[in-house]
Write a structure and sequence with these properties.
about 575 residues, alpha+beta, 4-stranded antiparallel sheet, 16 strands, disordered C terminus
Length: about 575
């Protein structure tokens, strides 16, 4: 296993490129991962409801609830069943054991309810099966209010509903506080009596005409054609012109017998915002999409639709955004990010005080690299970032630097003994490979049982051990593969810079170079007239001699023994023999 350290050290450039790619992949994964408040878990529960207009609570219990309980009690994996009976309503809540097969369970519930429905009395509506899922709660509510007619408000709300449900991240945009349009027919008893029409005849005519009747196929030499008799109502005018009977040559229509109005159904619920009646759109996002980006997209879509309204309509209708869960999630993520950064800073301060600058920087390199590798693994597993994931990262900050600290400290000791940086870090990683691996394995074993925590709490907290396992495995890779290569490369670069800075700081070679090159070049600035410090050389050479400071300071040095000893072959006086030179 320790051979992977030698393999990485022999391919330092490839490992450095792999480190850069890992950091970029982790950063892109963190930006693209969905961010949620709580983990999106699947609760093993279903709710079956039946609407039965006019039934009492006692009859609902006897005729509906008990029948459903008798049929549903034989379901596989059923843990708990609770029945509810009320006026006009009956419902049964089903709780199943953890690890259920939702598809098979839903099919079994439908079969059982089909058998129970056959035993219901006539007059009941179709049963409904509802799944309990946290992801189907609204993430944002768009409210429309103002002094406009109900029909206008409902028209605007449904237009917004079509726009919002056309967005990819939006699963549903349900409308609350609206009323369905209906055609109200007020019969006049005097007219019915005058036209000799009974109410029963009129109702039967209306019921029999609001149908779409297929009449079969007609075979002709040219081909076969399907025939249908369209008798459904498309508008109020169709109801008004509906023929009821013939009275001589005259056809009696429904409009002659009743007053027909286009109106709304009675309210069964009310939506209010800031004390005013409103029509609200409850936006539900699809699973796997970022709640923050979805809320921003909804806001932009609503603003674009509002900009298309006429000026008078924009002045009369107020559009309000409420119950925006993205602000809570964004605040939570920002706070947790701040907590992670604070924990990293504190760990860096402790490492800096105990080890020094260079080891602290290498240990600090291990923290964000391990985090970004963890985000890349979470993206592969399709896990959203939630408060549980961020809490796991905070817990892992102090644990993931243990291996890096051990490797860096031992490598520093070997460097102080005279060993080269790359050999020192590779040797330290090989020597500490099994201690660091075993230390990480013991920490992982402490969190491994949390993966098998049963029930909904285990599913809710399951992301905590997953996050810790990913982070600690990433820290093991960084400490034993990435860190030796980075320590060796940075050690070589640091040694090269240290040598050059010491050479520049000493300054002997620069002084020799300036003293040897300056007299041969034209002096700057050029001499101003004839001065004592400047003199012409012979006309044949046409060169300027050295200025006064050269004559005063450098000529004695040039006449010294050091100058005659060929300074480019041996170091100047006072230059330590162990220091390397720029010359060969």
């Amino acid at each position: 296993m320790t051979g992977i350290v030698d393999w990485a050290a022999a391919r330092a450039r490839m490992i450095v490129a792999l480190i850069v790619l890992s950091i970029l992949a982790g950063a892109l994964a963190y930006v693209g991962l969905p961010k949620e408040g709580e983990p999106d878990i699947e609760i093993p529960a279903l709710f079956v409801s039946v609407d039965f207009p006019g039934i009492s609570a006692e009859d609902s219990e006897k005729l509906l609830v008990k029948v459903m309980e008798a049929e549903l009690s034989d379901l596989d994996g059923l843990d708990k069943m609770t029945g509810t009976a009320a006026e006009n309503y009956a419902g049964v809540a089903l709780e199943f054991e953890f690890g259920w097969d939702k598809t098979k369970t839903m099919a079994d519930v439908r079969d059982a309810m089909s058998a129970a429905e056959a035993k219901f009395p006539e007059g009941g509506e179709k049963y409904q099966i509802t799944e309990i899922n946290f992801s189907e709660f609204p993430i944002i509510v768009v409210s429309l209010s103002g002094a406009v007619p109900d029909r206008t408000m409902v028209h605007l709300a449904r237009d917004l509903q079509d726009r919002l449900e056309g967005l990819e991240p939006v699963l549903e945009a349900g409308i609350a506080g609206d009323r369905e349009e209906m055609v109200e027919v007020l019969l006049d008893p005097l007219r019915l009596e005058s036209y000799n029409v009974t109410a029963t005849e009129l109702i039967n005519v209306v019921r029999n005409n609001n149908l779409l009747i297929p009449a079969g196929d007609v075979d002709t030499p040219e081909g076969s054609f399907s025939v249908k008799i369209p008798s459904s109502f498309d508008g109020p005018r169709d109801i008004y012109d509906l023929p009821i009977k013939t009275n001589g040559d005259r056809v009696v229509r429904l409009g002659d017998l009743a007053t027909i109005n286009l109106t709304f159904e009675d309210r069964t619920g009310t939506a209010r915002f800031n004390g005013e009646n409103t029509v609200a759109l409850q936006v539900v996002k699809r699973k796997g999409f970022n709640i923050i980006d979805t809320a921003q997209l909804v806001r932009r879509t609503v603003a674009a639709a509002e900009a298309e309204w006429p000026d008078q309509l924009r002045a009369a209708v107020r559009v309000s955004i409420s119950n925006d869960q993205s602000t809570v999630i964004e605040s939570m993520v920002s706070q947790l990010e701040g907590s992670v950064l604070t924990a990293i800073a504190l760990v860096m301060l402790v490492t800096l005080a105990a080890l020094g600058i260079r080891p602290a920087l290498l240990v600090g390199f291990a923290i964000p690299t391990s985090f970004l590798l963890c985000f890349a693994l979470l993206a592969v597993m399709d896990v959203a970032i939630s408060n549980i994931v961020m809490f796991g990262l905070i817990l892992a900050v102090g644990m993931l630097v243990d291996g890096a600290i051990v490797v860096v400290e031992y490598a520093d000791k070997r460097i102080a003994e005279g060993e080269g940086p790359m050999h020192a870090y590779v040797g330290a990683a090989k020597r500490m490979f099994w201690p660091v691996a075993s230390s990480t394995a013991t920490t992982l074993c402490a969190f491994l049982p949390m993966l098998f925590w049963p029930g909904v709490p285990g599913q809710f907290m399951g992301m905590l051990p997953v996050t810790l396992i990913f982070v600690l495995l990433a820290s093991l890779l960084v400490a034993l593969v990435f860190l030796p290569v980075m320590g060796g490369v940075t050690g070589r670069v640091e040694r090269w810079f240290d040598i050059r800075i010491r050479q520049i700081a000493h300054g002997f070679w620069l002084w020799h170079w300036s003293c040897s090159r300056w007299p041969r070049a034209r002096s700057w600035p050029p001499p101003r007239g004839r001065r004592r410090c400047w003199r012409r050389s012979t006309p044949a050479s046409r060169r300027w001699t050295a200025p006064a400071f050269w004559v005063r300071w450098c000529r004695p040095w040039r006449r010294s023994s050091c100058w005659r000893l060929a300074w480019w072959r041996s170091p100047p006086p006072g230059w330590p023999a162990s220091w390397p030179r720029f010359w060969g």
